[in-house]
């Protein structure tokens, strides 16, 4: 078997290097353990056979529980779309039947209204639920009172 390198951003490479140093092992070993742990955790929630064994799957959980489990993944996915400051709109203020989860996110001004649509799609696929994303950037530009109200009715993710 021939070895191949993996490309990682500078921060990830630095973290893996530091872990390898402190654990007195190789970077390759740190990555192998991290991948194995990730697969084990992810399979526990996504494996349909786990449902028959009584342990359940991710989709058996309520949407807010799924969000709690995949919060970091969601934040990383939003960051790839240049979105940040993610907030969860209080479920009691969400119109019944509109969406399972409503998130607020600061988006790139140049993306315009498309950013919220793209982020809604990303979040919905990641969580297996209907997620609506509202751009706080657009609210700030076009509906400042609405932005204040939305921020008051939400909490940081």
TrEMBL record:
It comes from the Bacteria. This is Uncharacterized protein. It comes from Agromyces marinus. The lineage of its organism: Bacteria, Bacillati, Actinomycetota, Actinomycetes, Micrococcales.
């Amino acid at each position: 078997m021939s070895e191949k390198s993996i490309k990682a951003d500078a921060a990830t490479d630095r973290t893996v290097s530091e872990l390898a140093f402190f654990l007195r092992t190789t970077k390759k070993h740190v990555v192998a353990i991290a991948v194995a742990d990730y697969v084990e955790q992810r399979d526990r929630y996504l494996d349909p056979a786990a449902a028959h064994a009584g342990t359940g799957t991710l989709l058996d959980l309520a949407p807010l529980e799924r969000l709690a489990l995949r919060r970091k993944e969601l934040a990383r996915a939003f960051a790839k779309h240049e979105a940040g400051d993610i907030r969860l709109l209080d479920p009691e203020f969400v119109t019944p039947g509109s969406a399972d989860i409503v998130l607020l996110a600061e988006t790139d001004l140049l993306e315009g209204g498309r950013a919220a649509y793209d982020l809604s799609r990303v979040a919905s696929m990641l969580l297996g639920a209907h997620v609506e994303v509202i751009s706080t950037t657009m609210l700030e530009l076009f509906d400042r009172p609405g932005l204040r109200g939305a921020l008051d009715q939400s909490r940081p993710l």
